[in-house]
Design goal:
About 30% of the residues lie in helices and about 30% in strands. With about 220 residues, it is α+β, with helices and mostly antiparallel strands.
């Protein structure tokens, strides 16, 4: 994961604030530039309307891109100083131009909002080790009916990789068998696979379909 992805993975851009910060619109992208380290380097930051952030650093004397700060385990003092300046700028942009969200993906945040509206349930984050894992409990029985996790896709799908968010829900085994024939449904990650199923939250499956299944999970835990 890049520096930008790590810093902005739970953030949504407010485009109006970018202009106030000093960004200039270039086609479908907003660009901001800043010289650092006594004007020896220039940072260019690009942000699109989907909250994707990309940065480049240029050596102004050599007129070429400087990349040592991105090399993993590179311990050079100058590269570390450049990296710290880059991170400092990114965090400032995040704090002033972005809205922090509970979860990484838009669909996850939409689903959580709908659960709140229907059941008046807030996500509970019960684990210190897994700070991004969120559980939803049925107030009537104190049983889980949903568990959101961020994992690498390789844990549920072979020959795949990349960070994803899933929700595990509890359903009858026959329902699970049918759902597993469709895209976006996987054998339950870290749960009993006879009664739980993992659903990927990347818009492969519509919000409506997922919410209908969450309703079933809620009823199944009564």
């Amino acid at each position: 994961m890049s520096i930008e992805e790590e810093i902005f993975k739970k953030a949504k851009v407010d485009l109006t604030k970018l202009i106030k910060y000093g960004f200039k619109k270039e086609n479908e992208t907003f660009k901001y530039s800043k010289n650092i380290l006594h004007n020896t380097l220039r940072i260019d930051i690009y942000i699109d309307n989907k909250s994707n952030v990309k940065g480049n650093i240029y050596d102004l004397a050599l007129n070429e891109e400087y990349i040592n700060y991105r090399i993993e385990n590179f311990n050079g003092e100058y590269a570390l100083k450049v990296k710290n300046e880059f991170i400092k700028l990114l965090n400032d942009i995040k704090n002033k131009c972005f809205i922090t969200q509970l979860f990484i993906f838009e669909q996850t945040n939409r689903i959580v909002k709908k659960i709140k509206e229907k059941y008046n349930d807030e996500p509970n984050f019960p684990w210190d080790k897994y700070v991004n894992y969120a559980a939803f409990k049925n107030k009537n029985t104190n049983k889980w009916y949903g568990l959101i996790m961020n994992i690498d896709k390789s844990k549920i799908a072979k020959n795949s990789k990349g960070e994803i968010e899933i929700i595990n829900i509890k359903l009858p085994f026959k329902t699970i068998e049918e759902l597993l024939k469709k895209d976006g449904y996987y054998l339950a990650y870290h749960m009993n696979k006879k009664n739980w199923i993992s659903i990927i939250l990347n818009d492969t499956i519509s919000d409506e379909e997922i919410l209908n299944l969450i309703d079933q999970s809620y009823s199944f835990t009564l």
